[in-house]
Design goal:
This protein is 35% helix and 19% strand. By secondary structure, it is α+β, with helices and mostly antiparallel strands.
């Protein structure tokens, strides 16, 4: 009985289960007893997690395990990151690769792709970051703003922080470079889709890859079709209360 009681208390907070290729549940949010959102993978090894409301990132490569992460800038002041430089390393390195041309992208005028730009924008909005904030916490803090208050360049930095290193690791540099090109080519259009209540679903071909953009207000959702499809989602707290992005 005690074991059942413990399970009942823990289960609503975090639940992860492998259910084969079962189509995952839609995300849901609730406010009681505390603000929480459900974040779920879609097709592959389905993972569902309830976590404190924040920014949800999903990377779901075809034929591979889904990577589901929650990011938030609400870390208590007395909770310290053991090694902030190590925690920031992969994200800064990815942005450095894009700026330097070591990642073969077609993007131009991308000198602004720096974590510092995002930090300035967040602090300029009066958002207090936790001590020794990591790039992912800074990105989550920026995406917590009302979509109408976002700007194209810092939005691009935030999205590449959350998606770039993970996509590169889960797929390859070709897909990661194509993602950069897609987001950086028309940043104002990307921003407009994240500000719109019901934008149309669009498809764009880049080389051998095709992007199906199902984004909507407060939520980026892309399906990249190539030799293996990849589903990407970055869902901000401002998308809370909606099911999937496009609905």
């Amino acid at each position: 009985m005690r074991r059942l009681l413990i399970f009942a208390l823990v289960f609503p907070m975090i639940f992860c289960i492998f259910v084969g290729s079962l189509h995952a549940q839609d995300e849901q949010c609730r406010t009681n007893p505390t603000p929480q959102c459900q974040c779920a993978c879609r097709d592959v090894r389905s993972v569902v997690s309830f976590a404190p409301r924040g920014t949800c990132r999903i990377i779901e490569p075809g034929g591979g395990a889904c990577q589901l992460r929650w990011f938030d800038a609400a870390r208590p002041k007395d909770e310290k990151v053991l090694d902030p430089n190590a925690a920031a390393g992969p994200y800064r390195q990815f942005l450095d690769r894009v700026r330097s041309g070591n990642l073969p992208t077609k993007a131009r005028d991308i000198s602004f792709l720096r974590v510092e730009l995002l930090e300035e924008k967040v602090k300029g909005r009066g958002i207090e970051l936790p001590p020794g904030s990591t790039p992912t916490e800074t990105a989550a803090a920026y995406l917590s703003l009302d979509p109408n208050e976002l700007e194209p360049e810092p939005l691009l930095v935030a999205l590449l922080i959350l998606l770039g290193p993970g996509v590169s690791a889960a797929t390859n540099d070709e897909v990661a470079a194509a993602l950069v090109d897609y987001l950086a080519n028309e940043p104002k259009i990307i921003l407009g889709r994240l500000q719109s209540e019901r934008p149309e679903i669009v498809s764009v071909r880049t080389g051998s890859l095709e992007f199906r953009d199902e984004s909507a207000r407060g939520c980026l959702e892309l399906v990249i079709s190539g030799s293996r499809p990849v589903t990407l989602m970055v869902k901000s707290p401002r998308a809370a209360g909606r099911s999937r992005c496009r609905e």
